[in-house]
Design goal:
The protein contains ten helices and 14 strands. By secondary structure, it is α/β, with parallel strands linked by helices. One of its GO terms (molecular function) is DNA-binding transcription factor activity.
Amino acid sequence: MSKLPDFEGLAMFAKVAEEGSFAAAARVMDVSVPTVSRAISRLEDRLGGRLLNRTSRQLSLTEFGHQMAAKAAEICRQAEAVELEALELSENPRGRVRIAIPMSFGLRWVVPILPRLMDKYPELSLDLHLSDATVDIVAEGFDAALRIASLPDSSLVARKICSVTQYLVASPAYLETHGRPAHPRELAARKCLSYAYRARSQVWQFTHDSGYHEEVVPSGPLRVTNSEAMVPILLEGIAIAELPEFIAGEYLANGRLERILPEWNMTRGGLYFVTPSARSKPAKIRAVSDFFAENLSEPSWRWPQ
């Protein structure tokens, strides 16, 4: 015997008791009469007693059936209430959303727009996990994540919000003192700052406008887990670094940093909204995804603008 109750049999019995016949119950439930009959017989065998007296012309509840009918109907009402509540949660953006977002990007570009999200969906609440480390959203119980990557994890469902470019930058003071490199190979002899959470590896990959590829392993005085930490070192003219455009843009615009090797492109990735599954996304997840797509798809950090 199954350890689980026979919910289907109880539901069909409750409907037969309510409608007064197998045929009427079958029509209401949109199943065949034999399906209802088999379910009732299975339930009777399981419960060890006859629920219905059956004749060719009449169907009536036994004394045992009378005792079970009300309880079976109550179970059905409770199940219907659960389904209605779940449907409401699925259709209306409400409840908590646990989302992981890279630290610097989240503080600079996500947190400032959250008041709009809260105003738009007052019954929604966010549990915001800010960290540059890539979390396992399935294992750690997150509903979603914003990720900046060249290729998102194929085991997740990803919605691209916008493209994100990486720039190789240095300060005017650095370039005046050390000169401007003319080829990626020259970086091997330069002080370079490194980002510990690069999606692929610590290798910088360059692609020339002509299509030629070059790889460099940077080395230098600092390796960080947050790209913002490189900015003061860069501004002091100590080293070269790779920065995402959402950080580098303002410094390139005001001239405090300069892009070097502009004819060589670094990683061209994107900002993605990722979820564990594409199936049955609740309204709260769809709402957050649509909000980010609406507000971040044409970012103001672009340089040159």
